[in-house]
Amino acid sequence: MDFRVLPSGDLTLTNLTAPGCLIGREAPLETISLSIRDGRIAAPAPGLPQVDMRGAMVFPAFIDMHTHLDKGHIWPRAANPDGSFDGALRVVEADRVANWSGGDVRARMDFALRCAWAHGSRAIRTHLDSIPPQHRISFAEFTRLREEWAGRIDLQAVCLTSIDRIDPQGGGEFAEIADLTAESGGVLGCVTFPDPLLRDRLRAFFAHAGQRGLHADFHVDESGDPAAASLRAIAEVVLETGFDAPVTVGHCCSLAVQPDAEWQATLDLVARAGIHVVSLPLCNLYLQDRAPDRTPRWRGITLVHEMAARGINVSFASDNTRDPFYAYGDLDMIEVMREATRIAHLDHSRDDWIQAFLANPARACGFDAPSLMPGAPADLVICRARSWTELFARPQSDRIVLRDGHQIDRSLPDYAELDHLMS
């Protein structure tokens, strides 16, 4: 249960704790009051019923900018045999061919969205596996769900295929995928890795995106191999072509194992190109540097501190949930924030890392920026914690979630709902 039941209607919440960067102040944490009137945040107003929140921390509802709703919750029928990246690729491909009908994909995506809603997310970008003929099945179901969830969770979809399936001459199946992505109001994406024709394929990719007015979102160098350096190629081709729509790259794991001179030069190019980066610490911690009977030697994530120091827009997101790429997760951005803080040592650092779960992903994706300022929707997540250490010490399973000023039912769907899909 939530730690408190709030009265319905307009009211003022007093004695809240908020990150200073969310309210235009320099202190790491500030004590504030928030009035809610007609579903929106208002300046504190006399005469409204007041509720003392006893120092509870408040955040705007979160943005999860890199997920895989179409893969989610297949673990019971498609477990990763060894926890490796290659094992995940093999199992997902087999499960997609065998099971990903429209009804299967729809049921699992809707289940995941109900989890995200209960945890306090207001916007999600998902990648959709788009190897034909799956692209038409999954985009059709996603489009219907986007309409059904309108007003609750804003949704974006990114097509997902591999760079080696893109014809450098601009034709082939990727042109059809790009057309469908544009018709669906989506984002153009693919997975990049070392390839002899990488730059030619990237030029074709950006030509497709430019012709259709699409943003770009890549899975990049999800590897512990220092030779995986497609991020640098992406930045160089963006600068070479003058592609001016937003470009996002995710993972970028291999940067952390490259020589200093190499990653420094790459990040300088990424900053010049204005590329957004999203780190996926939970999935990368799970997959990277995994070997039988051997303790991993690194955490798998990219160089977020070095990126932020260069002014690169850095975000964090959930990535996979209960599928062969990550056996756990529930699209809970407080869990992502808690674990990212531990894994990437975000503590004892800058005071605005909270924006990597709010304003930064909004900027990268074009979602409305979450805000605690007057006039913003009263879409809030309130936790029974008065400081960062209290927040991160517990999972905050009793948090309060408000949408349009109303406290929502945070009951999570039962995994048993999906049992009929797992046999």
TrEMBL record:
Chain segments annotated as coiled-coil in the UniProt record: none
InterPro entries registered for this protein in UniProt: Amidohydro_3 (IPR013108), Metal-dep_hydrolase_composite (IPR011059), Metal_Hydrolase (IPR032466), Metallo-hydrolase_Enzymes (IPR052349)
Entry GO MF terms: cytosine deaminase activity; isoguanine deaminase activity
GO biological process: one example: cytosine catabolic process
Signal peptide positions on this chain: none
Domain Amidohydrolase: residue ranges: 199-398
Stored SUPFAM superfamilies: Composite domain of metallo-dependent hydrolases, Metallo-dependent hydrolases
Xref: Pfam families: Amidohydro_3 (PF07969)
UniProt name for this protein: Cytosine deaminase
The species this protein was found in: Paracoccus halophilus
Lineage of origin: Bacteria, Pseudomonadati, Pseudomonadota, Alphaproteobacteria, Rhodobacterales
